[in-house]
Amino acid sequence: MTDVATEMNAILGKLAPVVLPPAEYPPSAIVRDTPREELLDRIRNNASKIDMTLTDDHWDVINFVLDFYVHCCEADDPGYVSQQVYWKYVDCSYDENCENPLDQIDEKDCPYGKLSATEATNGYRVYRILLKAFADKGGKKHLYRLFPLGPLFTIHLLAQLPRLRHDVDPHFGTAY
Predict the structure, then answer these.
(1) Rounded Cα distance, 175 and 144, in Å
(2) Per-residue model confidence (pLDDT) at position 21
(3) Residue 9: which region, alpha, beta or left (left: phi > 0; alpha: psi -120 to 50)?
(4) Which of 14, 28, 52, 97 could form a disulfide with 69 if both were Cys (CB 3.0 to 4.6 A apart)?
(5) Sorting pLDDT into bands at 50, 70 and 90, what band is 72?
(6) So what's the pLDDT on residue 90?
(7) 61-70, 91-100, 131-140: lowest mean pLDDT where?
(8) Residues 6+ apart with CB under 8 A from 115
(9) Which of 82, 74, 69 is nearest to 103 (CA)?
(10) Which residues face 73 on adjacent strands?
(11) How would you class 18 by CB atoms within 10 Å of its CB: exposed for 0-12, middle for 13-18, buried for 19 or more?
(12) Which residue has the higher pLDDT, 24 or 68?
């Protein structure tokens, strides 16, 4: 067994990945509906369990992924935060001059593009956006130096988010 496979088995022995059908539990909906501090605490605790020291560079990538899920991925439900927002949304669907409170996201907030809830469950699609976002710091080389088992796989494991489709393919030796 290779060193990476041994390391992955040791980590998986300490932190079991959440294996849920990704199509039914898009990470964007979970990250959006979970308080940020709770996610960050979970990441810190799980990193300490596997003796992983998180540097500022790690946190840059982690925060980018979490922010991307919140702001640039659609969720299957519209995310009504209150009855007032819901009824304002309903009223706005009939009045084109109405300001819809759910249309707060500008394209400038998502310079690398947006993904649908289904696309956001595919490891490769999210990985490509991650490469674009960190191209100026070294792209793939930078990300795998920080997360040798794959940036998305590791972040999802630490945050206890559902696994993405095709996040690890042992037949081709890829891990996103």
Answers:
(1) 10
(2) 47
(3) alpha
(4) 28
(5) confident
(6) 57
(7) 91-100
(8) 28, 72, 73, 74, 125, 126, 129
(9) 74
(10) 115
(11) middle
(12) 68
Instruction: Please state whether 107 falls in left (phi above 0), alpha (psi between -120 and 50) or beta.
Output: alpha
Q: What are phi and psi of 175, to 5 degrees?
A: -145, 120
Q: Are 124 and 174 contacting, i.e. CB atoms less than 8 angstroms apart?
A: no
Distance CA 176, CA 151 (A): 6
Closest by CA position to 111, among listed 167, 59, 67, 164? 67
CA pseudo-torsion sign 136, 138, 142, 144: positive
26 phi-psi bin (left φ>0, alpha ψ -120 to 50, beta other): beta
| Mean of pLDDT values over 53-69 | 95
Q: Would you call 132 helix, strand, or coil by DSSP?
A: helix
Query: Which helix (DSSP H) or strand (DSSP E) does residue 124 occupy?
Result: helix 123-133
Cβ(166)–Cβ(155) below 8 Å: no
**Contact of 155 with 163, CB cutoff 8 Å:** no
User: So what's the pLDDT on residue 24?
Assistant: 58
Closest Cα partner for 57 from 123, 144, 173, 166? 144
Contact 150, 168 (CB under 8 A): yes
